[in-house]
Amino acid sequence: MTIEQFIPTNLNTNANGGAVTWSSPSNIALVKYWGKKEHQIPENQSISFTLNTCKTITKLSYSKKETSNNNFSFKVFLDGDHKEDFEPKIKTFFERIDPYLPFLKAYHFKIETENTFPHSSGIASSASGMSALAMCLMSIEKELNPEVSDEYFIKKGSFLARLGSGSACRSIEGDLVVWGKHNDIEGSSDLFGVKYPYQVHDNFKNYQDTILLVDKGEKQVSSTVGHNLMHGHPFAQERFKQAEKNITKLKTILACGDLEAFIALVESEALTLHAMMMTSMPYFILMKPNTLEIINKIWSFRKQSGLHISFTLDAGANVHILYPENEAEAILEFIKTELVAYCQNGHYICDRIGFGAKKL
Ligand code: DP6
Description:
Blueprint: E1 17-31, E2 36-37, E3 41-42, E4 46-64, E5 73-78, E6 81-82, H1 87-97, E7 107-115, H2 126-144, H3 150-164, E8 176-179, E9 193-195, E10 208-212, H4 223-228, H5 236-256, H6 259-278, H7 289-305, E11 310-313, E12 319-323, H8 328-339, E13 348-352, E14 358-359
Parallel strand pairs: 5-7
Antiparallel strand pairs: 1-4, 1-14, 2-3, 4-7, 4-8, 5-6, 8-9, 10-12, 10-13, 11-12
The structure holds ligand DP6.
């Protein structure tokens, strides 16, 4: 598919208005997206587990503008409070998606959003937030053109979400989503995420993700700034090739259920992501002392117990603990007795693989 296919030709903007609501989850990358080109095109392919519990619920109300003008008109509310500081980000999003949704300037929008996880938890809400909003906009497109097919709806929802935040394009479907054109993944594209199209071993069904909230503060360096520091980064090209190879390796691992190989690949990806940050110019560190304490505890518990516990990291200090469902009891006990002490105010979230965005 090309971008031109996402430009609608027969939209009718006679509808006076209405409201739509979607919920959309966060996702956790196994092979990380880090580095992008212009127009939110990724430098390397990535793959993620869609989450289940951490999600955003967005209601988008739209009403026909009395007098048409060439501006976007919208207001954003988080948990019922008007959030002016969110509006520049949404304006940038609207500017990027305007060519693909020619009705945007014909309506006034009210965006009412809430997250199932605390706003100041250090959990990025951009993936769930942007994907929920993208799906609401797709529902309006469908109102204006009922001929939109289900396949187009999902692909374009992911395409739009990507223009809001790259990783958001991996939240529309589940349980595994690939983003970025890869020769070994049929149907994959730089423009949108696709549901992983191959058989996955039972070991990975209902995989668990317990998120340890190590630092709930605002990050010192945003993902967007971090991605940009991959331009001219001394190790960038090798890193992009490594991600491509890791997707090929992961395909074999997912088919045969090799948990040891899965752990090695996923942990190496997390540490490589942070190594890229530490070797950028300017360099930065997003891990905190407690992040390292947790990683070391996981390693020694894994050695001593033989259980398949592993970790991954986002662009922050929080730790995602990944493990198979059939080992959940012992691992959760370990988390509660040994790891919760390293979390800010003892906070953690029990999540697991989920299946994507839903219309409410
Ligand atoms: C470290 O998707 O937040 O979580 O495209 O600039 O919005 P923007 O970046 P974003 O980057 C997320 C990067 C990551 C890894 C990943 O999710 O693949």
